[in-house]
Amino acid sequence: MSLVEINFDGIVGPSHNYAGLSLGNIASAAHAGDPSYPRAAALQGLAKMRGNLARLGVQGFFVPLPRPNRALQAALALDGSEPPQLRAAPWSASAMWTANAATVSPAPDTADGKCHLTPANLVTMLHRAQEWPDTRRQLELAFASRDHFVIHDPVPPSLGDEGAANHMRLCQSHADVGVEVFVYGKSGGPFPARQHEQASRLIARAHRLAPERTLFIEQNPAAIAAGAFHNDVVAVANERVLFTHAEAFADQEAAYEAIRRAFPALEVVEVPASAVSLDEAIRTYLFNAQLLTLPSGEMALVVPEECRESPAVWGWCTAMLAGNGPIRQVIPVDVRQSMANGGGPACLRLRVVCDPATVDPRFLLDEAKADRIAAVIEAHWPEQIDPSDIGTEPLARSVIAARQALLEALDLAALG
Predict the structure, then answer these.
(1) SS3 (DSSP) at 60
(2) Catalytic pick from 115, 171, 317, 347?
(3) What is the pLDDT of residue 92?
(4) Burial, 269: exposed, middle or buried (Cβ in 10 Å; 0-12, 13-18, 19+)?
(5) CA–CA dist 148, 73 (Å, integer)
(6) How far is CA 288 from CA 47, 81, 355, in A?
(7) Torsions phi, psi of 32, nearest 5?
(8) Up-side HSE of residue 289: CA atoms within 13 Å toward CB?
(9) Which of 230, 280, 307, 317 is catalytic?
């Protein structure tokens, strides 16, 4: 079996909007009430997927979830008198950020030699807690082979779990045995810490991970308070490299030491606060990047365009590339519509190490399929959604028809 890392990106849904639903997400709050551009957002995400397909030779995707969520609308007893944010929750397109879809432990790490996936319950936020049943339906379809995959129930709802956004894996190569690092929060000042330590520990046990290769590290409360609502806003790992801000963890040096004990080959690429402040790192999403191993063996960092526009961030990147570190390329991409709602390149993808032949091919991208997706988006996705459109039946009909057209184009009507 040939194991590779596949990035599964979420196609941005036709109800993409800026309702400011995510407490602790600075970008989401800053853009609350702005008009959104679903067609542009989806095409930006698709362009990023095409780029990584060309670089890596393999790329996956997930389709948008059903919106508006009629069951949630009924449960909220919406009658027009409710606050706009409550009315907007059933319309949320936040499942596009598939880093929160699940936690994934590849087969080399698990006792039974299968890839384990646990859908995230996302209970901290109402608009996200509705996602997991439909997310699970896609996971069960995409990874249907029970010879290769195990899909678990979410952890109990009293324990907040945000999926792979708070999970890192270090290894010599993706196909080798790895060390899995679960990052949890305790306090975020005015903002909730979304990842519960016991949720992480439960997932590690369910995935049958070896205790000596499993670590639990606390995120820096100051990072959460500054807007790093997930660990992947301040740190990302790939193979032997941990790329991190100097203020990512509650005890930075103890975190490095713990990882090195389990994985002596660790290479840390640390960005000091004197070069890039925590606030600037969060504003530009320098760390919410895709750290990729290219076929040449070099590593590339796929960052938002906002990084190139920041003198501090781009200055640090330029200096890094002039050195002899493990990251040899920095590739800016335009995902501005996602960024304005608080999700960079890393938010948009779920990493699954597996043999592509074991994945339902309907969820694997090629250029012809990308063309079909683009054609549906251009024909059916709303060009613009204004805040006053949320909750209206004309928009509901448009969004439902757009998603249905995509499912038909991809032979995924079973998810209708």
Answers:
(1) strand
(2) 347
(3) 97
(4) middle
(5) 37
(6) 18, 37, 26
(7) -55, 130
(8) 36
(9) 230
Determine contact, residues 340/18, Cβ cutoff 8 Å.
yes
Task: Give per-residue burial for 290-316: e unless 16+ CB within 10 Å, then b.
Answer: bbbbeeeeebbbbbbebbeebebbbeb
Given the residues 5, 16, 115, 162, the one annotated as active site: 162
Please tell me the total number of residues recorded for the chain in this structure.
Answer: 416
List the structure tokens of 266: 């660790």
pLDDT single digits (tens) 261-277 = 999 999 999 999 999 99
What residues contact 257, with CB distance under 8 A and at least 6 apart? Answer: none
Asked if pLDDT for residue 1 goes beyond 70, the answer is: no
Give the span between the Cα atoms of 89 and 104, in whole angstroms.
Answer: 27
Secondary structure of the chain: what % helix, strand, coil (to 5)? 40, 20, 40
Instruction: Provide the token pair at 411.
Output: 């032979």
171 is catalytic: no
H/E stretch holding 225: helix 221-226
61: tokens are 């995707």
Structural domains of the chain, ranges and CATH numbers in brackets: 4-415 (3.75.10.20)
Phi, psi dihedral angles at 163 (to 5 degrees): 80, -150
What span, in angstroms and rounded, lies between the C-alpha atoms of 366 and 273? 40
Per the annotation, the verdict on 347 as an active-site residue is yes
What's the pLDDT score for residue 191? 83
Q: Is 167 among the catalytic positions?
A: no
